[in-house]
Amino acid sequence: xxxxxxxxxxxxxxxAALAVRAATxxxxxDVMTVDPAPRLLDALGLAAxxxxxxxxxxxxxxxxxxxxxxxxxxxxxALRLDPKRTFDSIIARxxxxxxxxxxDFRNRIYRNLSGAxxxxxxxxxxxxxxxxxxxxxxDLLVLxxxxxxxxxxxxxxxxxxxxxx
Amino acid sequence: MTPxxxxxxxxxxxxxxxxxxxxGPAELKKLGRVLDAELLDR
Lengths: 165, 42
Description:
The complex is a heterodimer of chains A (165) and B (42).
Chain A: E1 2-3, H1 11-24, E2 28-33, H2 39-43, E3 54-55, E4 65-66, E5 69-70, E6 75-80, H3 83-94, H4 99-106, H5 108-116, H6 120-133, E7 140-144, H7 152-163
Parallel strand pairs in A: 1-7, 2-6, 2-7
Antiparallel strand pairs in A: 3-6, 4-5
Helix pairs in contact in A: 3-6, 6-7
Chain B: H1 2-7, H2 25-40
């Protein structure tokens, strides 16, 4: 589930609420935000600023029931995407040698590109989304996208991202 | 505002609260219940 739209319309809050609801109903849920302000993590009672999912413990999520039967799958994990860190992990994954990423990360041009390239947040969100979607233990992914004037741009980036691999 | 949008055919959902930075777990659960019923069940 992807929440799209310009800044300030409530994407982060809606994303968190939908994720909490699904987890309460017994689903295994990951919710990811790329909002620069860690409001989603604050709302969920998390202080951590991690690019990896962090387990959220809320009353009503564990031991929840669906259709009268107890479910053990129910969980909620949240993460705040760090586009720069995700960019670095992609470089490290496809590097030809162990030394190559360390050299690239020090490169001034790379540092500027990975942090300020137009749309890099969208690309990294899609990259992380695909990575999390590969987890068979997850029932639902909720993505809170970066603010965008034209929401459709985010979906168009999927085609560009997939063609790069 | 909501009836004006609804009159034009735009799908609308009445939310139970204003969004603020003070929203906590209890508010998220309440909001989630409304979204589930009003948005996802359509």
